[in-house]
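To: structure desk
From: M.T.
Subject: fold request, one chain
Message: Could you run this one when you get a chance? Sequence is below, nothing fancy, just the single chain.
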Amino acid sequence: MWAARATFSLLVGVLTDSPYPVILFARLFAILLAYAGFLMGRRDFQPGNGVQHRMTRPAVAAADVVYERIRTLIQRGELQPNERLIEVDLAQRLQATRARIRTALVRLGQDGMVVLTPNRGARVKLVSEAEAVEILQARRVLEGLAARQAAVQATAREIAELRRILTRMGQKLEQGDLLGYSEGNAALHAGIIAASRHETAARLVIGLRAPMVRFQFRTILVPGRPTQSYAEHITIVQAIADHDPDAAETAMRAHLSGVERTLSRTAGAAARRLPS
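Reply: Done. Structure tokens follow.
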């Protein structure tokens, strides 16, 4: 606004001080060019409408963010086992470039969560029964260690949080919300690993892709398993609260052995229900 007033004042001075029309118009033309140059130099000036307008572009997700979001979609089952991963669709869904989607899929392939096939693209990995059993066997050792360490390291606040999670799991069980119970189960295991302060065990457990096994096989839906699972978790948390490392490790190993037995009985039926 101030620029317009200044220009008007300058024009008035030109008109009153210049006796010759040619000189007058030359000065006027120079002033207009200078003013136009001023506007074009503004970063927020958009030619065509003569008004100030801040030009913005939609935010594009960073490469690490894209990787984590696709990983989470797979772990939550929003991208299902054996589902084809189309770069264009994922780019639109995640507001990311195709190059970043492609980079994320390569990383997920290295993690063992995605299968990359030349000339055929990418698919979410379908975990076989044999691999699922191996994952549970590895978890039994690593999470048994984590439970032992948690019994030594856990603070009163951490133990209280484990009890709160356990209470919510019991409520979900009473409500018949087995998938909600399963989510609480995952939170409880994560809380125990965090309380253990064993970084190597935590890193190795993350690499085992346990959420994919949990989603694909859904052992918690097997009749009788939810009640048994809840009782096993009560025993684990109580041992940690009692600061009894031997009991905590034994209880965690027994729990995951139970999951393994249930999975072995139901894996064939679960695999047949998956989309081809």
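Reply (cont.): Confidence is low (pLDDT under 50) at residues 38-57, 270-276. Let me know if you need anything else for the meeting.
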